[in-house]
Design brief:
With 179 residues, the chain is mainly alpha-helical. It contains 11 helices and no strands. α3 runs antiparallel to α4.
């Protein structure tokens, strides 16, 4: 229910439910704080989450990069990736989001993308979308998004949370939930 409040921008209802009733969901807190552009509080919540989840380093990297990218703090994100030697982490399914976030960060900073690092995941639907987005093939990315949403409308909610699409006119349809 809290997610639906967030997607429909019913932020007061979402805030009440997330902080007063649910209380324990870091991801919902993160998503709410990102939605209201309170990125520093989202990072503080992440640090609280880390205290209880010290062994989940890849999740920590994924969450922190997600917040920093939404905040458009690209250099800080790149420094964070470098501090955590992300490019040297063994390529597994767990690291896919992190690798795409790293390459998106590099793209935003005008640095070269390491296509070899991400192309092995390129045929998985959501990663295929990201791959074509990073490659500036927006027509293909939009086509894939529409097919993905046609399979399951809930994918629209998931994709609307990606920082990639926020500043691109071609993707405005992702943020309209009345259609």
């Amino acid at each position: 229910l809290a997610e639906l409040y967030l997607y429909n921008n019913d932020l007061e209802e979402a805030k009440d439910l997330i902080f007063n009733i649910i209380k324990t969901s870091f991801v919902l807190k993160r998503d709410y704080l990102i939605r209201i552009s309170d990125f520093d509080s989202a990072l503080e919540e992440l640090e609280k989450w880390l205290i209880k989840n010290k062994t989940r380093k890849l999740d920590y990297i994924r969450h922190k990069s997600f917040i920093l990218l939404h905040a458009k703090r690209y250099q800080e994100a790149l420094d964070f990736f470098n501090e955590n030697a992300v490019e040297k982490i063994e390529d597994t399914e767990e690291i896919r989001d992190i690798l795409y976030n790293l390459e998106f960060t590099k793209k935003k900073l005008g640095k070269g993308i390491n296509w070899k690092k991400i192309e092995k995941f390129e045929k998985e639907t959501s990663y295929e979308i990201a791959y074509h987005f990073l490659n500036d093939d927006h027509k293909k990315a939009v086509s894939l998004i529409k097919a993905f949403i046609d399979k399951d409308f809930s994918h629209k909610y998931m994709l609307s949370e990606w920082c990639y699409f926020k500043d691109h006119k071609e993707y405005e349809f992702l943020f309209n939930f009345n259609s």
